[in-house]
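Most newcomers find our protein records easier to grasp once they have seen one. A learned vocabulary of local backbone shapes supplies the integers on the structure line. An example says more than a description, so a record of this kind follows:
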Amino acid sequence: MDRVDQNNDAQRTLDLALRVGEMLLSNGAGAADVTATMSSIAHHLGLRHALVDVTFTSLVMTHQGGIDEPVVAMRRQVTYREDDYADLTAVDHLVSSLLDDEITREEATTQVLRMSSSGHPTPRWAVTVSWGVIGAGVALLLGGDWIVLLIAAVSGAALEMLQRRLARLRLPFFYSQVAGGLLATTFAVGIAATDIPVDPSLVVTASIIMLLAGLGFIGAFQDALTGFPVTANARMLEVLIATMGIIVGVSGGLGLGRWMGVDVLLNANVSSGLSYLPGVIIGSALTAAGFAFSAYSPARILAPIAVIGGLGGGVSFALTENQVDRAAAAGIAAFLIGLVSYGVAGRLRVPSFVIVVSSIVPLLPGLSIYTSLSLLAEENFTGVISMITAVAVAVLLSAGVILGQYVAQPLQREARRLEKRLSGPRLVGPMRARRPLRRRR
């Protein structure tokens, strides 16, 4: 093979690895997982010394066959981000098939192009209904009655339609979060102005959790732990800006309520505890499964996610009832989720990332955020403590999940050789490198 053919061959391999990496990164996978997966593809297809550089918005891959040969470099921009766990799972299977020599490079490239250009088979109305299920699930685990569940479901569905409409306008994510928080609080103000016997704070809290659900807590923390500080800082900044958007929107709604003379501040009974244990378990299961469905997760994983989400919510509730700090209880529950998810993901052939992200949604600190904003609206500066609690819960959720994966996921010798600069467990992608192909087609 002459030098031109070698360069063309290397370019095709780099192009495939970059397209796979783009699909993974745009769907929330950590930089460590993206780097290891791209390196595995290049190594298997004969490019032993390919270098991968992953940032939050771009992927760069280079290869030089020898000291006297030119460097082949290719780059791709990550221009969109979406929670699409069907694509994430499909790419994970494609990489495994490629590394097991079940498909050729050209077949893998064709499949990746098809995935990136095809739409979602799930109808939009079903996704809207799933957001309603998430709202009802959160209201149930917070102890709401059937009226609260119905109103929270309607609020969740309305929130999804608003977010979808704003996404079509290509507004920055911050403004859609502001609009979501404002819609939820305004909806609660309208309810509080009627004679309906409903605590409006439950509706707002459920909406906050739904707005937090799509944020990249786990990806940001995984990048920070695995030696990707630039990507970690970018993800954390995005999460911070999005969360600030929620705070601005909810604060605006609370101000509107005060101006109208309508009280939508926190009910003391909500801040003191959650629902009874069966309600927490069922509500957590509905919330986790509803989010998984809204993120286009494979149908076979919805029931296990519901079970794991219910388990995590029940453990967190039981620990909190036994005087364990709320953040610590969330961290312990997240650790168990990460531990259990590894085995379940292997049996059902989905990335662990799909399970752990969906299962921790019921544990997100929506109640702490709303408690803080309600107290600060009354000029009670102890609300700062509730905001610190919310931050602690978010950090311990991510840390607990990743620690659970550390314990559950054995680090094989071959994987350590390939991924010397990575220190974290794999949430997406192959567990080990495969031998390189002797003949590349």
Summary: DSSP finds 18 helices and three strands in the chain.
